[in-house]
Amino acid sequence: MAHLGARVTHIGPGRVHIVLPARPEVTQQHGYIHAGAASAIADSAGGYAALTLFDEDSEVLTVEYKINLLTPADGTRLEAIGTVLKSGRTLTVCQLEVHGIQDDGARQLVAHGQQTLIRVQARR
Q: 13 phi and psi, to 5 degrees?
């Protein structure tokens, strides 16, 4: 996330927001924020959301995720929101949303997805 310039802006039980400012390093040839960058922040938001519900000896790994790119990712920044739908002993399922946000605060849903994560023991 540091390499992309993204930062966590909200942490709550089962919910995490990550913001990625638009800059040339994360755009594609048409000037939109690249789908890879949007997908990366969505994946991380879901993973961190799951982690908020685990004990301190647990970590999380993504098993799979699917993301639908609904419209070109435009705006001065993107905000990914990961929300836990079901937290289990082994697998956790999260909803992923990515919104393009303009300077005036206008928001548009640019991507939506679902993710499955596995709980693993922390590496020592």
A: -60, 115
